[in-house]
Specification:
Elements: E1 2-7, E2 10-13, E3 18-26, E4 33-39, E5 46-52, E6 58-60, E7 68-73, E8 78-83, E9 92-99, E10 112-113, E11 117-122
Parallel strand pairs: 2-11
Antiparallel strand pairs: 1-3, 3-8, 4-5, 4-9, 5-6, 7-8, 9-10, 9-11
Length: about 120
């Protein structure tokens, strides 16, 4: 099993930056890809970004490209999501996820999930 704990959410104004972190514990050696998803009430969970084990490959949704950056610190079993130029439509609960496999933007492909952290962007 792999446990994921997110941190760094909060209330910010439009245009501000925020950095989310996700700490992994347990059988982390089995994790090859870590990702971030987000969800608003009444909507499906949507993909934000993903990164492979060694950080050489990243993948981001079109809606966040150029504003959000995903990075990974394997020594600390942590993945970060740097969010810049935040918009009100970025408001959501952000979830960290992990899987043993290739890169994917599909929620069904991820085996492990964190509890989520709320990000609220006021306009």
């Amino acid at each position: 099993q792999v446990q994921l704990v997110e941190s760094g959410g909060g209330l910010v104004q439009a245009g501000d930056s925020l950095r989310l972190s996700c700490a992994a514990s347990g059988r982390t050696f089995s994790v090859t890809v870590m990702g971030w998803f987000r969800q608003t009430p009444g909507k499906d969970r949507e993909f934000v970004a993903a990164i492979n084990r060694y950080g050489g490959t990243t993948y981001a949704a079109d809606s966040v490209k150029g504003r959000f950056t995903i990075s990974r610190d394997n020594a600390k079993n942590t993945v970060h999501l740097q969010m810049n130029s935040l918009k009100s439509e970025d408001t959501a609960v952000y979830y960290c996820a992990a899987r043993n496999g290739g890169m994917s933007d599909r929620t069904s492909m991820y085996d492990y999930w964190g509890q989520g952290t709320q990000v609220t962007v006021s306009s």
